């Protein structure tokens, strides 16, 4: 079945550590996105990529980094510069064009310990 | 600036009721609108996608309508079941950068 796989499901980060969240899709979608979800707030866009080897900052990119070396993969690194990283992170993808909707992964819950 | 509002924020109904969830947006220049469902601690599941040229979409007990001129969409759930309990989110796709603008969601509880 086609879909988006996020791993790990739960991740714990120590102070000062960088961690990387994985997102893989087999939908042949060109565009991929990373969102952050906090209780009581709407989804906020961190980074997005519309094509391989290209990506743009979203609304809250500070303290995060991404790469898009393969069409199928869009990993997100939460760096030590992100002061409040505890949140639920969601990856999504979509086909090119405005006629298509988004497909989401199951999410990664990151906790600072 | 596009803003999306969902009312009510929370809803509790007895099993079997038909119900309507509302989503309003401030700018009618949209490409499409998508309804999602999110169970606690889970990712988002796409329910219905309505293109800007469409008036409604149906999937099983779900029906979503779109009225661009008034900036409103409704999600109608027929014969609600306890398994429908979840948070329902609507998102509007607008702008050249393919960004989705999100509402805060409606938390639905269907009581047996």
Distance, first to last CA of chain B: 41 Å
Q: Order of SSEs of chain B, N→C? A: EEEEEEEEEEE
Which two chains have the most extensive interface, and how many residues on each? A-B, 26 and 23 residues
> What structural class do helix, strand and pairing data of chain B support?
mainly beta
Output the number of helix runs of chain B: 0
The low-confidence runs of chain A, each spanning 5 or more residues with pLDDT under 50, are none
Radius of gyration of chain A: 13 Å
Elements of chain A, N to C (H/E): EEEEEEEEEEE
Structure, explained:
The complex is a heterodimer of chains A (113) and B (112). By secondary structure, chain A is mainly β. Chain A is built from no helices and 11 strands. Chain A has strands at residues 4-7, 10-13, 19-25, 31-37, 44-51, 54-57, 64-66, 76-78, 87-94, 103-104, 108-112. In chain A, the strands form 2 sheets. In chain A, strands 2, 4, 5, 6, 9, 10 and 11 form a 7-stranded mixed beta sheet that branches. Chain A has a 4-stranded antiparallel beta sheet with strand order 1-3-8-7, with no helix packed on it. Chain A is globular. The model of chain A has no long low-confidence stretch (mean pLDDT 94). Chain B has 112 residues and is mostly beta strands. Chain B is built from no helices and 11 strands. In chain B, the strands form 2 sheets. In chain B, strands 2, 4, 5, 9, 10 and 11 form a 6-stranded mixed beta sheet that branches. Chain B has a 5-stranded antiparallel beta sheet with strand order 1-3-8-7-6, with no helix packed on it.
Features:
heterodimer, A: 113 residues, mainly beta, 7-stranded mixed β-sheet, 4-stranded antiparallel β-sheet, 11 strands, B: 112 residues, 6-stranded mixed β-sheet, 5-stranded antiparallel β-sheet
